Amino acid sequence: MAAAQNGNEGVWRVLTGVGALGVGIGLIAGVPILSLLGAPLAIVGVIGLTAARRK
Predict the structure, then answer these.
(1) Could you give the 3-state DSSP secondary structure of residue 1?
(2) Coil, strand or helix at 6
(3) What are the start-end ranges of the E strands in the chain?
(4) What does the radius of gyration of the chain's CA atoms come to, in whole angstroms?
(5) What gap in Å lies between CA 38 and CA 18, rounded to an integer?
């Protein structure tokens, strides 16, 4: 990465990753509650990451 990361950008990346991991595990394992909990985390993480990169 050529540019320095914003202080909150790492947190948003982790939140997005955890949400995506939850969705993936929920879909593969057939546990819908993981997908239902992971999807909003991933969406909020992507929105936060986009906002952090715009600053």
Answers:
(1) coil
(2) coil
(3) none
(4) 13
(5) 7
Distance CA 15, CA 48 (A): 9
**Whole-model pTM over 0.90:** no
For 1-55, write each residue's pLDDT tens digit.
545 566 789 999 999 999 999 999 999 999 999 999 999 999 999 999 999 998 7
Q: Which of 40, 51, 34, 36 is nearest to 16 (CA)?
A: 40
Contact 38, 20 (CB under 8 A): yes
pLDDT at 55: 73
Rounded Cα distance between 33 and 31, Å, is: 6
Buried b (16+ CB within 10 A) or exposed e, 24-50: eebeeeeeeebbeebeebbeebbebbe
